[in-house]
Amino acid sequence: MTSIYRSLNLILLGPPGCGKGTQAKVLSEKYHVPHVSTGDMLRSEVRRGTELGMKAKEIMDRGELVPDSIVGSMILRRLDEADCARGVILDGYPRNVEQAGVLDGILAELGRTLERVIVIEVDDDVIVRRLGGRRSCPKCGRVYHMEYNPPRDDATCDDCGIALVQRDDDREDVIRERLRLYHEKTAPLVQLYEQRGLVVRVDGNQPVEGVTEGIVEALGTPLNR
Ligand code: ADP
Ligand code: AMP
After folding, report:
1. How far is CA 24 from CA 10, 48, 89, 181, 209, in A?
2. 169-197 confidence digits (pLDDT tens)
3. Which of 3.40.50.1360, 3.40.50.1110, 3.40.1500.20, 3.40.50.300 would CATH assign to domain 8-125+173-219?
4. Residues lining ligand 1, judged by CB closer than 6 Å?
């Protein structure tokens, strides 16, 4: 939490692979608010083999968006949990204008406000390289890049020691479809939030620490706790 906010509800917006999850992890530790990723929640359903997970996997493997009603009820339940009361870092939600409307309704119902929308800007050719080298820990979800942010040991998680995996949707053809959908459905949200004066743009084409600095600068100094 920063000294200038009583609560900190943030959206991280940007194309797949721009670094939302990477930044959310750092920001969550720094500001003591949970990282809420609809992609992570859906992948957890897939791993557990639930009915929702099986339905979502087919859609996710094609790079398409899971229906608004499914992600909407997931996010409503999650934001109503006690640890989200003082803020949340949203990663991957909202992804279209309809979802932005649902989020407005949820926040209004819970008596919360959106403090900032951080737009992480990265060029499409950089995205393809980043997602091609992305690996993650199937246990804790920590994200690595085999070139830019490699694990200490070959291909195992620094924290859990187990083999890292590549996401099924990080194949070049699927990446292209996800990018196309981002430009068509998600990018218009930048303008929507800009009209509300909430947007801060950060250059995501720089190393992880530089991107974090840009975001922290935009948010102000964190409280010493
Ligand atoms: P998103 O959550 O937006 O899909 P990730 O945080 O998973 O993106 O990052 C995608 C890939 O790019 C990961 O392999 C990650 O380690 C790497 N990465 C993230 N930020 C940077 C950066 N600033 N520079 C280089 N690589 C990065
Ligand atoms: P991400 O982890 O954010 O890259 O999301 C991975 C995949 O999960 C996406 O390509 C979608 O298929 C699905 N997904 C995640 N969040 C949403 C959302 N808010 N709306 C619809 N589908 C989503």
Report:
1. 10, 24, 6, 22, 12
2. 999 999 999 999 999 999 999 999 999 99
3. 3.40.50.300
4. 16-22, 91, 130, 133-134, 143-145, 148-149, 204, 207-208, 211
